[in-house]
Amino acid sequence: MSETVAETPICYRMTPDRELLDGRCDASGCSLRYATPGGESSGRIVHAVPPCVLGNQHHTTIGYDGVKRVALMVTPEGGGDFRDQVWEAITTMRTILRQQNEPMVLTVQTVFVDSAANVPKVRKLFEAYHGDHMPLTLFVVQPPCDGRVIAIEAWAISTRTTKVEFLSPRLITVEHDGLRWIYASGGSLRLEGRSAYEQAVDAFEGMNAVLAEAGATFDDVLRTWLYQGGITEIEGDIERYRELNRARTDFFAHVPFHSRKLAHGRNGHAIYPASTGIGTLGQGLITECLALQTKRDDVQMLPLENPLQTPSFDYPEHYSPKTPKFARAMALRMGDHVTTWVSGTASIVNSETVHKGDIEKQTDQTLTNIERLIDADNFARLGWSDAGATLDDLAKVRVYVKHHDDYEKCRAVCERRLGRIPAIYAQADVCRPDLLVEIEGVAFSPIRKAEARKE
C-alpha cells in the first residue's frame, strides 16, 4: 500500500490518546489519519517532521454537534531554564492544534508552576505569545511531580461554527449551537491580613461579579475550582479549608440552587456545582468556574452522588462547622451525549478516610469511587436510565499527590486502571491530613438509544 506525505507536517508524537464520541471526524466528515513512528502505512499518513523539539504531550479529541474539542496535557522534557520549558510547551500545544485539520483556539488553561517566584516570568511569556487572545489562564503553584518547571492542562475548540469572545483576562465566552459557555475567574487573592473566611468570601463575590459582566449569575455555574494555600493549616483554632467551606455555605445561601433552570428531577433540593478544593503553596486563593446558559429543550443537568460515599453536604459536623457544598459530579446531557464533570475525589468511603498511609490502595479506592460515581447503574439510580460512563470515557484526569515520594506508585496504579490517558500529576496538599491523593476528570459518553429514558 502506498504511503502519503501530508502537506502539513505531521509528527507521530502528536497523535491523540483518546478519541471520544465522534472525535475521529473532521469538519468534512472524513476520518483523520495520523503518522506512525516508522511510517507504516495501512492508510496512515507518514510523518514529515522529526519530534525532537516537542515536549511530552497527551491529548484527547472530542467531537459532538459538529464541533471538535481538544483536551491537552503538556509537559516540557528538553530541559533548560524556565524560558526554554515554557516555549517548548507552547510550541507543542501549537503543533497539536495545527494538526487538527480545522481552525482551533485555546479557551482555558491551567499552568502548574513549581514556585511562586516563577509565576510572574511564566505569565509574561504566555501574555507575549497569546496577545489579545489569551485564554483564561490560572497559574497554580503546584509543582509538577516529574520535576519540570511547569505543566499545562488546556482546552481548545474548533472555530468553524463557534464564536469565542475574550472579554477580559478573567472572562471568556464560547457560543455554539444554542449553548453559551462562560469561563470566569475570581482572580488570585493574596492573604494580605485577611482570614481564610474573608478570602473565600471575596473569591466567590469576585467570581459572581465577573459572571455578571457576561450577563450570568452563580446559579448558571456547573463546576468550580478552588486552589487554597495552606489548606490544612490551622488558622486560629480551625483549619483553613473548614473556613473556606463556611464562607462557601454562607455565599451559596443567597444563590437559588433549589430552582435551577436545567435541573432534572430534584424536587426542590439544592443542586450545587461540582467542585475541586485543593491545596497550593503559599497562603493565597485562586478560583475559577464554568457556567452555561441555553434555551435548548434537550439540555438538562443532573448532580451525581456516589453510592459508596456520604454526600459532602451531609457530612457529620466534626468535619466542618458548615459542610462542603458541592456535588460529587455534575452531568449535562446535550443532544445525543452526556458530559460529566467529576469533582475532586479521594479515598473516602461513606464519610471516612480509608487505607490511611497506603498510597497505592488510596489511589485504587479513589478510582473505584470515580468508576462507581459515573457508571450506568448510578445514573439509572438517579433517573437517567439511558446514560452512564466508564473510566475509558474520561477525556483527561488531574492527579494531585500529597508527597512527591508517592508519585511513581500512584502513577503506576493510575496507568493500570486508566490506560493511556492525558494526565497531569501535581504535588498538592489534599483537604484532609490523612488523604494522600485526589483525582478529578471529565467524561464524554453517548446516550444509549435503545433504552427508554426514565423520567
Q: What this model shows, in words?
A:
The protein has 455 residues and is an alpha+beta fold. It is 21% helix and 33% strand. The chain has seven helices and 24 strands. The strands form six sheets. The chain has a six-stranded mixed β-sheet, covered by helices on one side. Strand 13 (234-235) and strand 14 form a beta hairpin.
Helix-strand blueprint:
Layout: E1 4-5, E2 18-21, E3 45-46, E4 56-64, E5 67-75, H1 82-98, E6 104-113, H2 119-130, E7 136-141, E8 150-158, E9 163-168, E10 171-176, E11 179-189, H3 196-213, E12 221-229, E13 234-235, E14 238-239, H4 240-252, E15 274-280, E16 285-294, E17 299-304, E18 329-334, E19 337-345, E20 348-349, E21 352-353, H5 359-374, H6 376-381, E22 394-401, H7 407-418, E23 423-427, E24 437-446
Helix pairs in contact: 1-2, 3-4, 5-7
Low-confidence stretches: 1-8, 25-52, 451-455
Describe the global form.
Answer: globular
* Count, helices: 7
User: What would you call the structural class?
Assistant: alpha+beta
pLDDT averaged residue by residue: 88
Distance between the termini: 52 Å
What are its keywords?
alpha+beta; 33% strand; 24 strands; six-stranded mixed sheet; disordered C terminus; globular; single chain; 455 residues
Summarize the structure.
The protein is an alpha+beta fold and 455 residues long.
